[in-house]
Write a structure and sequence with these properties.
about 160 residues; 10 strands; five-stranded antiparallel β-sheet; three-stranded mixed β-sheet; single chain; alpha+beta; 3 helices
Length: about 160
């Protein structure tokens, strides 16, 4: 599952607000998580998606509606390396594993991508957190019973282009 991501709408807004000296939605999210007792409020999580997404579809309501589902699935914390000054790129630094999935069919639907979000859980009726980045796969991944999906270090990258 190697892919180069694109910045989600809320991630872009937070980046621009930060550059303009404004309080960002991301900072407000960290403060809310701290107030709720989260011991690691800046941890980000990877959620698996079952539909290809565009920039216009990176709001949490849409993403929660197309999130992977199945026994053994949970969003996973994902550590990132420091950004490279020469390439303006950051990549995941550790192996990230989803599953193993215990359902007879693995996950309910093939995985087509992933999103970087600020909350470990959400529900369709009350999607919480922010979506920061999204990745679409070149081809969908289907899982089987007792199979795990793993992302090797460096599989996901974030790049900010300068024009």
């Amino acid at each position: 599952m190697a892919a180069n991501g694109f910045i989600a709408l809320q991630g872009a807004v937070s980046a621009l607000d930060y550059l303009n000296g404004r309080t960002t939605a991301l900072e407000a999210e960290w403060q809310a998580k701290t107030a709720a007792g989260d011991p690691q409020p800046k941890t980000t999580y990877l959620m698996l998606l079952t539909q290809v997404v565009t920039d216009a579809q990176t709001d949490m309501t849409t993403l929660v509606g197309i999130e992977a589902a199945g026994t053994g699935y949970a969003r996973q914390p994902i550590p990132w390396g420091a950004a490279s000054t020469s390439t303006r790129t950051s990549a995941n630094t550790d192996l990230v594993q989803f599953g193993p999935f215990n359902d007879p069919t693995g996950l309910a639907a093939p995985v087509t991508g992933a999103a970087l979000v600020t909350r470990m859980t959400s529900s369709a009726g009350q999607p919480t957190g922010l979506a920061l980045m999204a990745w679409n796969l070149a081809s969908a991944i289907t899982t089987a019973q007792n199979q795990a999906l793993q992302l090797a270090p460096g599989s996901l990258t974030m790049t900010l282009a300068v024009s």
